[in-house]
Design a protein that fits this description.
heterodimer, A: 64 residues, mainly alpha, elongated, B: 177 residues, alpha+beta, Rieske Iron-sulfur Protein, 3-stranded antiparallel sheet, binds FE2/S2 (inorganic) cluster, transmembrane (chain A), membrane (chain A), transmembrane helix (chain A)
Amino acid sequence: MGKKTCWSIIICTIIVNVVMLQWTVEAHYGREYGSILLFSGISIVSAFIALLTYLQWRKIEYKK
Amino acid sequence: MTDKKKLGRNQKDTEDDMINLVDNLNREDDLKYNRRAFLKTAVGTSVALSVATIPFTVRAMLGIAEEDHERVEIAKLADLPEGESVTFYYPTEKDPALLIHTVNGDLKAYNSACTHLMCPVFYEKTQDVLLCPCHAGYFDVNNGQPKAGPPQRELPLIEIEVDNGIVYAVGRQYRHG
Ligand code: FES
């Protein structure tokens, strides 16, 4: 996985997380508990992906 | 060219404004605000956003456990002629609600805190709408959906049952079609 890919994945997770936060808040207003769990779950998974991607990027970036 | 031959303003550590324009280039900043730092901040942002959803999850988990409603008597149908409404509290003392006997003879009930900024809405029988006086918000009395003004979300619907001329509240739907 190249550095460019890492960058794009991380940017994508930010986008996903912004949307998920917004949806979670809306679901909270609507008391849709199921959706809150779903959106929040997606958000946490996406944060994990960001972290893993970051570790991968660090490996390439600081190798030498 | 050595420093000596330069004009004063071109020498190192000069006070001259036109030369000191480059002072906004700072080597330390270059080390601090670079591509690597940017990526780290981006990862941090992503994680922070996701952490921000966790309080909602926790509340949702607590909420699921307490999701059942009792049957509460609201009013006698005989006391509520068409075009009138009565305030009650459901499901708790903190949730004001409105039971409406519309001019068409339907019975409707909603939580009456406006979904904009919580002002109480009331039934305006001449126009057959629910009106929030605070910022002129209008709700459809037939389904609780916002019609005009600032409110974006519908009023929570209270499910009712009529039994022997007495109206009971039996449940609540927060989001409904
Ligand atoms: S509080 Fe009802 S319209 Fe603003």
